[in-house]
Write a structure and sequence with these properties.
By secondary structure, the protein is an alpha+beta fold. The chain has seven helices and 13 strands. The chain has one domain (2-262): Fumarylacetoacetase-like, C-terminal domain (Fumarylacetoacetate hydrolase, domain 2). The protein has helices at residues 2-21, 28-31, 37-53, 68-74, 125-130, 153-158, 206-218, and strands at 58-64, 80-85, 89-90, 95-97, 105-114, 132-142, 165-168, 184-189, 192-198, 229-234, 239-240, 245-251, 255-262.
Length: 287
């Protein structure tokens, strides 16, 4: 048990060093071939403890591997999850330094903002829907501290589900006003159409992703809280992040969300300079 704890702490330190230096590391599963999924989530939580001790806050969660093709590629049968820290949230339309990421890609997603606590196990789709205050279009900037994205399932889980940053759109939509499963999406980068998709690409419906997350965390004694954001998974393939320029996702019935990138920083600690905290106010919006 002591050896396992030491291995997990060492792995977490390696990932934290990649944030601090901007230098990616070798896959954890290459360094520790026996690394398991429980090990990986423990490594993720060790980093969350480090960030919260430094003053950051958990503002929600992301669900990853919601696309069947990606799960087949990694040989797994269910999604994974990561933590959304306050410093990961960027405001819509304000410049984001692409250079602060290591190997960023961008994905359009549908974000839930909760009105009431949600705790599994045993959460149904109806209960999950009743807990939602509104939905927003979102762009997730995924990133990997693992060199060249050479990841297995355990690698990406340990690396906080390959999280980077989040941009939320500014028009809250009540859940009953849109069919999330059929909501179409177009993704433009630099004015060019680069991808299309629909909400059903995320586990058949984004609501299914919220149900899965609530039940999975519930088994660990974790509750989703009011005001927290849940990213339900990408509805298209991930796309490259431009060194400078604008990426816009437009969802049918939800509106659009834009991320603006610029060159102005050297790679470094994503959490040292203060990404915008997205404590979404209930009944309002925060981009």
């Amino acid at each position: 048990m002591g050896d396992a704890h030491a291995r997990r702490e060492q792995a977490a330190e390696l990932l934290l060093s990649a944030y601090a230096t901007g230098a990616p590391i070798e896959p954890l599963t290459a360094t520790w071939p026996g690394l398991t999924v429980p090990d990986a989530y423990a490594i993720q939580l060790a980093q969350v403890r480090h960030w919260t001790a430094a003053g950051d806050e958990v503002k929600g969660h992301k669900v990853g591997l919601t696309a069947a093709a990606m799960r087949r590629q990694l040989g797994v049968f269910e999604p994974d999850y990561g933590h959304l820290m306050g410093s990961m949230f960027e405001l819509e339309g304000l410049p984001i330094a692409a250079s602060r990421f290591l190997a960023p890609r961008i994905e359009p997603e549908i974000a839930f903002v909760l009105a009431r606590p949600l705790s599994g196990p045993g959460v149904t789709a109806a209960q999950a829907a009743a807990a939602v205050e509104f939905v927003l279009p979102a762009l997730e900037i995924i990133d990997s501290r693992i060199a060249d994205w050479r990841i297995t399932l355990a690698d990406t889980i340990a690396d906080n589900a390959s999280s980077g940053a989040v941009v939320l759109g500014g028009r809250p939509t009540p859940l009953h006003a849109v069919n999330l499963r059929l909501a179409g999406c177009t993704l433009h980068s630099g004015g060019a159409l680069v991808a299309t998709g629909a909400g059903g690409a995320a586990l058949g419906s984004p609501l299914n992703a919220l149900v899965w997350l609530a039940n999975t965390l519930g088994e660990l004694g974790v509750t989703l809280h009011p005001g927290q954001v849940v990213l339900s998974g990408s509805v298209t393939a991930a796309q490259p992040v431009p060194a400078s320029g604008v990426v816009t996702a437009t969802f049918g019935g939800l509106g659009s969300v834009t991320a603006a990138f610029e060159r102005d920083q050297e790679p470094g600690d994503q959490r040292s300079g203060g990404g915008q905290t997205a404590d979404v106010e209930r009944g309002g919006s925060d981009g």
